[in-house]
Fold SMI1/KNR4 family protein.
Amino acid sequence: MTQPIRPPCFDGFDLAAFWADSDYARREYTEPPPTPQAIAAVEAELGYRLPASYVALMQRQNGGTPINRCFPTGQPTSWAEDHVAISAFKGIGFQKQWSLCGGLGSRFKIEEWEYPDIGVYFGDCPSAGHDMIALDYRACGPAGEPAVVHVDQEGDYRITPLAPDFETFVRGLVHESAYEDDPEDVKRDALVHVRAAPFNTRLQKLCDQWPDPRMPSAIRRLAEAIVEDKGYFALHADARSHLMYAAQFLLLSHSRPVRSMEGFLQSYPGVIAMVGSAHFGTGGWAPAFVEDWFQARITASELVQADGGWRFSPNFSAALLRQLLDGDLASA
């Protein structure tokens, strides 16, 4: 059956000024401009026809971080009393893990994180997966014009309507300065935190047990690089977050054997995540990111079983220590 022609979109709207220039976004989100074949393949995989306005936006830049990241709401969410925040738009494609059909794309949120199957999850939020922005096809059907909603995992997957369509959502985004401190202030405060906040007792003890006294400064240096990338301190599924997961595994496995992935996940909170705000840490964490990291290391034979537990292979451990202790973060 012939598909209806997608109507023109964003008349009078400056798409060139929509996207923020970000090394992190280019590395983790942005795909080549979508071809008609790629669009059709993504739609077939997802089971929904993407809005014409979504396609138009992605033809300008296929995934990334917007300059304006806040959308007003008439009711409170887990993020704020009067707005939600979007940290990135997923590109139309399969290549990048954050793309609509990437490894951490829309279906991943439904199948692994148990988000309600209402449509397409296109907008990542600063909460590391604990809330999402979605195209909601419940009222219009899979070939219709979906509404845009906020889905709040922290509120038992509560759904908050945002806009009647995607173009209205994009046009309604406002800068963070309308609600909170300037992003540069947030980044500056985060840098002060990772450089100077004291380690909690557990992290300090693990560092004291490590044979090389450079480990504390290495952890701070890596955290600083993460803040420079993102503008805040949070761990997701990017290369430098993976390096921080590996640093924590090194410390924990040196202190006692790591018998299983489940044991590592139980030990993980309280080292850097889920510590008091007065101490060095990210505040929250997303277990699925850590699980995926652990499984990927096993698949790559970088985590191996030895002496009744899991250890890094000698080659991986040596390369990891070079990155951490010698400050070689350019490749991460």
